Amino acid sequence: MHTNPLLRLREFDQSIWLDFIRKGMLFSGEFQAFIDEDGVLGVTSNPSIFEKAITGSHDYDDTIRAASLEGKTSKEIYELLTVLDIQKAADLFRPTFEKMKGKDGFVSLEVSPHLAYNTDGTIAEAQRLWKKVSRPNAFIKVPATVQGIPAIEHLISEGINVNVTLLFSLDRYDEVAKAYISGLETRARSGKSVEGISSVASFFLSRIDLAIDPLLPHASPLRGQTAIASAKIAYKMYGDIFSSDRFVKLKNKGAKTQRLLWASTGTKNPIESDIKYIEALIGPETVNTVPLETLNAYRDHGDPANRLGTDVSQATKTLDLLSDMKINLQKVGQSLEEEGVHKFNVAFDKLMTSLEVKRKLTLSDSSKNPILTLTNCGDIVQKRIQLLESEAYCQRVWRKDPTLWKTDAAAQSMIKKSLGWLHIAEKMEGPLEDDIKNFVQEIRDEGFEHVVHMGMGGSSLTPLVFARTFSSKEGLPLTILDTTDPLTIKKIEKSIPLEKTLFIVASKSGTTAEPLAFRDYFYEKVRLIKGHQVGRNFVAITDPNTPLVREAQDQGFRRIFLSESDIGGRYSALSYFGLVPAALMGVNISEILIRALQSAHSSVSCVKSSDSPALVLGAALGEMALRKRNKVTLLVDKPVEALGLWLEQLMAESTGKDGKGLIPVADEPLGNPSVYGDDRLFIRLTMKGSEKDFGTDEVLALKEAGHPIVTIEMSDRFDLGQEFFQWEFATAVAGSILGINAFDQPNVQESKDNTDRLLSHPTDPEKQEKPKLSEGPLDFYSTLSGTIGASLLKQFLELALPGDYLALMAFLPESPLTYEILQNIRIKLRDRLKIATTLGYGPRFLHSTGQLHKGGPPKGLYLQLTVDDTLENTIDIPGRPYTFGFFRQAQAQGDLAALRKHGGRVMRIHLGNNIEKGLKELEGYVKNTLELI
């Protein structure tokens, strides 16, 4: 413990407080562990924190029910819940408070944010809460508004401890410090003691940088410097104010200084250190209050040193330069204060609404209805859940413990840098969410009429889910381009107004070949219309310091959204990758994030494993896979059926490696129980109020046949936020149970490398494989022997064994006709062979199930379908010596080579240049062949 950087902060007389509170943590022993093991010396709260804790968990249900039966209103229940939490926390910190003689061990409770501009109302509520909490180590939080200043002075004069919150500017800090001193002076003049009275001034940091940085040139060295510079100057002011003759008189009577508290310390900019605001502001007589993620990060890689009092002249220079640029920090601070009050009001009002709903539900007992139920597997899964509980699994996940997945050092290092998705919804809510909304308004104000999103795999599947689930009537139509098929690209080009279309180039690595090719093609098309203004039609979403960042800057892109680098593409649904396109089409991303955060709170570290839907789901997936039920068959109601594509990619790419994994089966029509083997786990995703696409009788038949079924109920479409987080968590749990690193994709690159080799010699005839035989429009490519197509296909299908699956890999245009015929083929294959079937369109599936095909269980039969491009559909890619059609052909051949290298049972059937004719011919071949098996 002596090496814990959090504990070492005490050497520099800085106190670490936690900016989080929840009943479960208070009673589970987790808060006590923070005190004992990490040296946490206090805790702060606010309406937003309580809103997530109360609405996102069942911790408070019993108290809500009892209070409801007593006839209490929602506001009375809120106050009851918060006061009980504050009292419990204060009692936990009481030994710290007494040991440190009242310097630390404090817990903060906020007055209603609706009183921020009401001096008398603030005073009255603060007095009432102080009396109600009745703990000497409590703080009452009062905002540093103009109306809050006199309230602060009055409360201090009454001996009430005050945490001054929402402080953003140096001018306002000066007023706050003087109000504190004035309150003490008033108390002293009345003959009362000034000993034992405490106060902190909470200076909010990261929000300052988020507000200032957009006002600066992109390459300005001042970016990310304003908050720390302001804090250093505030600390100098603190030294001057509390060493003045005025305060020394009070100090001689036992008064304590009003310490500066650094708040909003979670780093929002992904190019900066996640512990930036702790490292830079360590200094004596200060407090740093941090969210859980930052606390865990500092424990992991903090490097304490006394830095707060250094480089003060540089800090002064920074603020002077901003002034020279006509940036008024006082006005920015005022704006941030108003925004902060508004945000807390919104959270408070939402909590009141949610509490009213919970109050009514608890009275009817319906609040305990689970969103997830297990059928025909409950006892088995419960044993796994008990084991996870004994291993403190939830706590270790949130502490980002890589040993849950792997034991070797290299893998553990990679895993620790891949768990940012746990907190991304929390990070996106607030200033970053507002940034997206402001951007959307800018786009609409400029008259844009359409959005084309260009990405692959994890970068495009979440936007695809939003586009197919929500209407764009409140925003702009959203088209997803994630195929190199030239017919599709031409169709999109003809359907949009190029000069009024916003193009999003999305790639985590910034090197993904397909979206870069899409960019080059449409960039040239728009350049011919708009000339040097072409970049105003383009936006990039990528990680920091990728090639795409530099290219987007060079090409004058309108905006570059930098996502968190500690999140893999398939876990990026709730980051910029998913939220920017969703917001552009008019989706209420605030509600999406709220549902995600509620889901996160239902699985946080203090939650009992059996009470966490996400952990229960993960336990079911992992345990059933260990028992050979690894064909995860998704039965998804039509309103959210696109979610199946996202789930397919998440599970396949996360777990399909080391010869293990979940094999997701999406969009396979429901059949009679007799066609399913004992390798299936059914996941039933339903939505309240929607017409059920899988009838009760059919699902009941599966149940009676003994098939395990997990049922998940969604309230409405916005519960996609809930499902995104829940399935990310569950997939990580399943990977852990299977002994898999759920965050890498070791075999994805293989097909890409093969494709690159083919593209490097696009006219080399030696690179073109010759068919085994040709019949009508069909060409058969196979290593099997045979002189007729039916014989080859029969031999291929007879390779299927119980527990296998057959993957249709269609490098074809995605259309209703293509879908209908391929679905018919799937049904025929499944019903006759009694194995699971999957359908993926290339090259999309290369970025999802492609990992599973190469690295997962050796249970696959792979039927690749390709097509010729007609001359009129040929599309050149600017700057490349090949067409989109050749690109797609190379991708198909590259994947074929990779599958063969891994010993895959694979056949390629080429459909000629008439897709409809070729598919119908294939359907006939399949039908006739199956009759012979």
Can you characterise this structure?
The chain contains 36 helices and 24 strands. It has four domains: 13-344, Aldolase class I (TIM Barrel, Alpha-Beta Barrel), CATH 3.20.20.70; 370-400 and 597-738, Rossmann fold (3-Layer(aba) Sandwich), CATH 3.40.50.10490; 426-587, Rossmann fold (3-Layer(aba) Sandwich); 748-930, Rossmann fold. Strand 13, helix 24 and strand 14 (559-562) form a beta-alpha-beta unit. It is an alpha/beta fold and 933 residues long. The radius of gyration is 30 Å and the shape is globular. The N and C termini lie far apart (67 Å). The longest helix is centred in the middle third of the chain and has 36 residues, at 329-364. 49% of the residues lie in helices and 13% in strands. Helix 9 runs parallel beside helix 11 (226-241) and helix 17 (378-390) packs across helix 27 (613-626). The protein has an eight-stranded parallel beta barrel with strand order 1-2-3-4-5-6-7-8, surrounded by eight helices.
